[in-house]
Amino acid sequence: MKKILLRAPILTRSGYGEHARFVLNSLTSNPEYDVYVEPLNWGQTNWIFEDTDYRKFIDSLVAKFGAYQEGPFDICMQVTIPNEWKKSAKVNIGVCAGIETDRVAPVWLQKANEMDGVIVTSNHARSGFVGSSYTLTDEAGQAVSQLTCNVPVEVVHYGVKDVKPAKTDLGLKYDFNFLTVAQMGPRKNLGPMVKWFAEEFHKEEVGFVVKANITNNSGIDRIKLKNSIESILKPFGEERKCKVHLIHGNMSDEEVHSLYVDPKVKAYVTATHGEGFGLPIFEAAYSGLPVVAPAWSGHVDFLYAPVTNPKSKKTTVKPLFEKVAFDIKPVPQEAHWDGVITTDSNWCFPKKDKFQKAMRNVYEAYNSKKSQATQLQDYLKESFNMNSKYQEMVNAVETFSNKSSSSQTTVESDKVMVL
Fold it and tell me: What pLDDT is recorded for position 341?
């Protein structure tokens, strides 16, 4: 059996925590793997606190890692931003969701080149690695070489979860509500999206369900988020008819999925600047909600699907969502993140009027948009089923492991002189 160490923020309520649990489930689906877990923190995000069988299972793998004294692991998989990747096993694999922008930072390329391979969640994320290049200069400023990604990068998407939604009562005032799940910050573009909604529907009985936080799920964070959203809505005054329903705090998978199937929640919207994958968008799509989104970055991998014309029988790949036009422009100064989002990066800026028109289209032509969403839902359930994605993850691990073993054998045989 191969002994595999998984280093990841696996117990956190975060996107990377979700990614880590997907990787763990993939690894443990293979009986040939003996898995150990080293839990990491992820910023200031909360940890999972529920006393479930799955939590106990993760704890047992953490305890097994704590007692491990048998030397280097065969494989180390590290689910975190590349800045934190390090060589610590015979085979080292970096796993990340990539970046929202059109390129990765130089340190990401340096760290990737220390790995035997990289696994990402979308073709957009892959292009960030394989398409980025930086000129290296000497002390005199003369170009000496190019920094590029020199290791293979594989794409493994998330799979459709088998989740039974919880029974919840959101207390929604109106029968038609949009939904978004996002962090309040520059990257998800949540503030402008709330404003654009209020401008478009301020005189109509339409709602907007916003599941969000700023940093974590604390009481202070809740107050800050509430104040921020209220300041956006204040200029619309008391005559505003449209409602914004703010949801904050820890939610289980069952509770989150209840949002997607609530009979009064009709569509999912995002004005994101970019996604490494876009898990909430994916969950909404495979739950059958019409999606409004810009056609750029990670989520386009699952919002397009093959469609067969009933008359010509010709199959073409088409967008099964309401596309929002956008511009690609430099990331603003306040979103720069040293070693992660570089000053020369670009990302998507959805156009306000096009976003509002897309929301209006879904609202006024809902039956046709719902039919399109159901078509996408059927495609995702078939092509993104969880077991196939687990196998894709295992296949990628095996590919990198075999290539590493092969290269080591070649190096050793080159040392042999035949006399």
Answer: 94
Structural contact between residues 63 and 85, judged by C-beta atoms closer than 8 angstroms: no
Backbone angles phi, psi at 305, to 5 degrees: -155, 155
Mean pLDDT of the chain: 93
- Pick from 353, 355, 347: which is nearest to 321 by CA? 355
Query: Is residue 152 within 8 Å of 403, Cβ to Cβ?
Result: yes
Helices and strands of the chain, counted as H and E runs: 12, 18
| Residue 137 confidence (pLDDT) above 90 | no
Element at 366 (helix H, strand E): helix 366-383
What is the sign, positive or negative, of the torsion defined by CA atoms of 79, 84, 89, 93? positive
Spatial distance between the Cα atoms of 363 and 206, rounded to a whole number of angstroms = 9
Compute the 3-state secondary structure of the chain and give helix, strand, coil in percent, each to the nearest 5: 40, 25, 40
What percentage of the chain carries pLDDT values higher than 70? 96
Question: β-pairing, 207-213 with 291-294?
Answer: unpaired
CB 260 within 8 A of CB 179: yes
φ, ψ (nearest 5 deg) of residue 183 = -85, 140
pLDDT class of 293 with cuts at 50, 70, 90: very high
- Cα–Cα distances (Å) from 317 to 123, 308, 309, in that order, read 16, 9, 11
User: Distance (Å, rounded) from C-alpha 11 to C-alpha 225?
Assistant: 24
pLDDT exceeds 80 at position 223: yes
Which bin fits 130, alpha (ψ -120 to 50), beta or left (φ > 0)? alpha
Q: Which residues pair with 347 in a beta bridge?
A: 329
Render pLDDT for 305-336 as a digit per residue (tens, 0 to 9). 999 988 888 999 999 999 999 999 999 999 99
Whether the pLDDT of residue 410 is over 70: the answer is no
What is the residue type of 172?
L
Amino acid at 28: T
Query: 413: buried, middle or exposed (CB in 10 Å: 19+, 13-18, 0-12)?
Result: exposed
pLDDT, position 415: 37
Q: How far is CA 80 from the centre of its chain?
A: 12
Is residue 253 helix, strand or coil? helix
The DSSP bridge partners found for residue 194 are: none
